[in-house]
Write a structure and sequence with these properties.
With about 325 residues, the protein is mainly alpha-helical. The protein has three domains: about 45 residues, no CATH class; about 100 residues, no CATH class; about 120 residues, no CATH class. The chain has 17 helices and two strands. Strands 1-2 form a two-stranded antiparallel ribbon. A hairpin with a 6-residue loop joins strand 1 and strand 2. The longest helix is centred in the N-terminal third of the chain and has 28 residues. This is Helix-turn-helix transcriptional regulator. It comes from Streptomyces buecherae.
């Protein structure tokens, strides 16, 4: 049987390999074969410890804090069991989408299905079935449709008072969301998005979507944005709670209730781009500049009739502030 000169696949030294049936030898010795196996294993460990591409996963992860915050706020407000469980289901769906997006990022970065399965502690068959490209596309497509419907579509009409009430609540949430985005944009001013994003630890595109009203954010993110822009978070708290459909917070003392009314008015004032007192009076045709100035300064507690006129002059609906005002009275 003849021999042919080849090169060892590991040490690159020359070696004689016999020609014939069977698997061709690629290493000059058992030691080289074992070293090559160790090198491959080390390379796999190094790849598994490296962060994967964060394109899809990051976009989903940025939405997780708002779902967690909404669930926590519902619990703290003593919401009904149905409402709390619905928040929990939404959080679970968001986590499911994040896992799928993270796997897709890993696959795009070159990770094998065996590596994905090991990282997720499932079999390779389960990983392929659960997070195949088609399944990931389906999950993320459903997420986009649900979020788009939540932002852009009004609830479908159905007979009965319950349907009308749901439509009214949805409309109020939409108005509060738009007002919150306007107030945050007013505070943002001309500051660089990149600078603001770095300060609050988020991506510029995420901050841009918050300021445009395309994306709702968890309260800690909104609070950090307001503080970074030199504003007072309590001024937009009512708008944020209303945009998320949260019930009014527990009753408090008179002084704190008065501060909440003032903060809610200031949130609408920010959303209206901080008009001059004279502009507000002209729009209301019934309020004095002195009274408006005192209310905006927080030294006047407004009665409902004049508060309604002020809210209308700021381009908002008085009914959206009724619960806050009733907390004082």
């Amino acid at each position: 049987m003849s021999e042919v000169r080849h090169t060892c696949a590991f040490c690159r030294r020359g070696m004689d390999v016999r020609q014939g049936p069977g698997r061709r030898r690629v290493y000059c010795s058992t030691a080289c074969r074992r070293r090559a196996q160790r090198a491959r294993s080390q390379g796999q460990r190094e790849r598994s410890s490296q962060p994967v591409s964060t394109g899809l996963a990051l976009s989903v992860a940025e939405g997780l804090p708002e779902e967690v915050a909404a669930l926590l706020a519902a619990e703290q407000a003593g919401a009904a069991l149905e409402a709390v469980l619905e928040r929990a289901r939404r959080l679970a769906r968001e986590v499911e989408c994040y896992v799928a997006a993270a796997v897709e990022d890993g696959r795009r970065a070159g990770r094998s299905w065996d590596e994905v399965a090991a990282a997720a502690a499932v079999s390779t068959y389960t990983a392929r079935t659960r997070w195949g490209e088609g399944e990931v596309r389906r999950l993320l497509g459903r997420r986009d449709r649900e979020r788009g419907a939540g932002r852009d579509e009004a609830p479908r009409a159905s007979p009965g008072r319950a349907s009308a009430a749901r439509q009214g609540e949805h409309a109020a949430m939409e108005r509060a969301g738009r007002a919150l985005a306007a107030a945050l944009s007013q505070l943002h001013g001309d500051r660089s998005l990149q600078e603001l994003a770095r300060a609050v630890g988020r991506s510029p595109s995420y901050i841009s979507r918050i300021l445009s009203g395309e994306r709702s954010a968890a309260w800690p993110v909104v609070e950090a944005l307001v503080r970074e822009c030199g504003g007072r978070p309590e001024y937009v708290r009512h708008l944020w709670e209303s945009a998320h459909g949260l019930a009014p917070r527990a009753r408090v003392g008179v002084d704190e209730a008065a501060r909440r009314v003032h903060a809610a008015v200031m949130g609408l004032y920010l959303a209206a781009a901080c008009p001059d007192v004279e502009q507000v009076c002209k729009a209301s045709e019934a309020l004095s500049a002195e009274w408006v100035g005192r209310v905006l300064a927080g030294v006047e507690v407004p009665d409902w009739a004049r508060l309604s006129a002020l809210v209308s002059a700021l381009g908002a609906r008085p009914g959206d502030l009724r619960a806050v005002w009733e907390g004082l009275h």
